[in-house]
Amino acid sequence: MNSNARTNIDIKICGLKTREAVQRAIDLGASHIGFIFFEKSPRNIEPADAAELAELARGRAKIVAVTVNADNDELDEIVALLRPDILQLHGGESAERVLTIKAVYGLPVMKAFSVREAADLEKIDAYVGIADRFLFDAKPPVGSDLPGGNGVSFDWTLMHALDGNVDYMLSGGLNKDNVGEAIAVTRAPGIDISSGVESAPGVKDIGRMEEFFAAVRRATDPAVAAGSRM
Ligand SMILES: O=C(O)c1ccccc1NCC(=O)[C@H](O)[C@H](O)COP(=O)(O)O
C-alpha cells in the first residue's frame, strides 16, 4: 500500500508559498491546496507566483483561491492567472454576492464562516443551495488582523447540530495532536490546516506536514491505527 495514498477525508493545506511545500503536500496526499490573497497575511502570495506553484498540483489536488471580500477586479486577476478549481470566500460576502461570483466565474465556492457559538452555524441558512461547500473556522482572537490562519479552535461539539447533508471542511487551530479528536468528534468530511504545519507565521514546515498527515491517517484508517503493514 502506498503510505501516502489519499485518505477517505479531504485534507486542505492552506497558505502555501514554496515549491517544496506544494510538492510535499501533494505527495503526502493533500486533496486541496490553498493560496491566500490577503495583503495583511504572512501567507499572502501574488497571483502570478501562486499560478506557477499551482502547476505542480493541477489535476492532482484541487487548487483553492482564498480571498476576503475581494472585488471583481481582484477576482478577475486571480481567476485569470491561477485558474483555480474552487474559490474560498473568507470574508463577509453575502449570499447574493456568492451567487454573483458563481455566475461570473463558473467556479464552485467554499464559503467560510467563523464559529464560536451555536447561533453562528445558523448563519449558513441563507447560503445553503448557493455555496457548494462550507468551511467552519474559529472566530479570530481580539486584535487579530486576519479572518483566518489564527491557529485557534472552536468547540467542535457545536458541529453536532449541523444538518448531516451540509458538506464542509473543519478548520481552525488543527494540528497533529488534536486532529484525531477533531475528526472523532465531528466526523467532518474534510479538514483544513495552515498554522499547525508551520514553524513561523507563513513558513510551512515539511516535518510538521508529515506528522499531520500521519495523525490523520491514524484517525481515519483502522489499519494504520492497528499498525498493519498491509
Ligand atoms: O491563513 C491566512 O493567513 C488567512 C488570511 C485571510 C483569510 C483566510 C486565511 N486563511 C484561511 C484558511 O483556510 C486557513 O487554513 C484557516 O483559517 C485555518 O487556519 P489555522 O487555524 O492556522 O489552521
Keywords:
8 helices; eight-stranded parallel β-sheet; 230 residues; 20% strand; globular; binds ligand LARABZUK; alpha/beta
Quick take:
This protein has helices spanning 19-28, 47-54, 72-82, 95-105, 118-122, 179-186, 206-220, 222-225; strands spanning 10-14, 32-37, 62-67, 86-89, 109-115, 133-138, 168-170, 190-193, 198-200, 203-204.
General shape: globular
How far do the termini sit from each other? 6 Å
| DSSP summary, beta strand count | 10
Mean pLDDT: 95
Q: Helix share of residues?
A: 25-40%
- What small molecules accompany the polymer chains? the ligand O=C(O)c1ccccc1NCC(=O)[C@H](O)[C@H](O)COP(=O)(O)O
What's the order of the H and E elements?
EHEHEHEHEHEEHEEEHH
Strand content range: 15-25%
Measured on Cα atoms, how large is the radius of gyration? 17 Å
What does the main sheet amount to? 8 strands, parallel
Any low-confidence stretches, pLDDT <50, length ≥5?
Answer: none
Alpha-beta content class: alpha/beta
Helical run tally: 8
Q: List the strand order in the largest sheet.
A: 7-6-5-4-3-2-1-8
What features would you describe in this structure?
With 230 residues, this protein is of the alpha/beta class. Helices cover 31% and strands 20% of the residues. The chain has eight helices and ten strands. The protein has helices at residues 19-28, 47-54, 72-82, 95-105, 118-122, 179-186, 206-220, 222-225; strands at 10-14, 32-37, 62-67, 86-89, 109-115, 133-138, 168-170, 190-193, 198-200, 203-204. An eight-stranded parallel β-sheet has the order 7-6-5-4-3-2-1-8. It has a two-stranded antiparallel sheet with strand order 9-10. Helix 3 (72-82) links the parallel strand 3 (62-67) and strand 4. The mean pLDDT is 95. The structure holds ligand LARABZUK. Ligand LARABZUK binds at residues 14-15, 34, 36, 38, 41, 43, 66, 68, 90, 137, 146-151, 171-174, 192-196. Ligand LARABZUK binds next to strand 2 and strand 8. This is N-(5'-phosphoribosyl)anthranilate isomerase. It is an enzyme of class 5 (isomerase). Keywords: Amino-acid biosynthesis, Aromatic amino acid biosynthesis, Isomerase, Tryptophan biosynthesis. Pathway: Amino-acid biosynthesis; L-tryptophan biosynthesis; L-tryptophan from chorismate: step 3/5.
